[in-house]
Amino acid sequence: ASGIGRALAVNLSKQGCHVAISDIDATGLGQTADMLKHHPVNVTTHVVDVARQDQVARYAAEVVRYHGGVHLLINNAGVVVTQTLEDISYEDLEWLMGVNLWGVVYGCKEFLPYLKRQREAHIVNMSSVNGIYTDPNNGAYCTSKFAVRGFTETLCQELSSTQVRVSCVHPGGVKTD
What predicted TM-score, i.e. pTM, was given to this entire model? Predict the structure, then answer.
């Protein structure tokens, strides 16, 4: 509904890709969908909390039902809490890991059976430059993004003999909500 996800939806639709966009923010999803109306593609919006496996499973099934299949999955949701590892609350740490790590895990596992039905498919998981190097007062985020990197690199190895490609992207800072 914002940031990298919105930019991806706009650019993919400009290239003729049908898109299913998800976010926890229904208003932002609607705004993004309005931006795509000028392109001759099918667009569906789905309110999803990626930290909830049941919602991601429902989302995957809805995407296939509405679009007939899925060829590209981009796990892009991400949140940050700027605090020391000593001071961050367990609640904030669990919330951050739920979105940043478990959202990727749930997305991959729930969409993978559908992706494997295609002749070609691709999974893109967003890590961060903080999945390569650490940063003080950003330890929870760094931890989650290192985990995304490890998960993605392992998944890439495990799927190397299939038609599903896997990429891990490490963007720098992006000014977004």
Answer: 0.95
Q: Which of the residues 59, 106, 114, 141 is marked catalytic?
A: 141
3-state DSSP call for residue 88? coil
Question: CB count, 10 Å around CB of 108?
Answer: 21
Q: Is 141 a catalytic residue?
A: yes
Name the one residue in this structure whose structure tokens are 């940050």. 80
pLDDT by 10s per residue, the chain, length 177: 899 999 999 999 999 999 999 999 999 999 999 999 999 999 999 999 999 999 999 999 999 999 999 999 999 999 999 999 999 999 999 999 999 999 999 999 999 999 999 999 999 999 999 999 999 999 999 999 999 999 999 999 999 999 999 999 999 877 776
Please report where in the chains the tokens 């490890």 appear, as a residue: 150
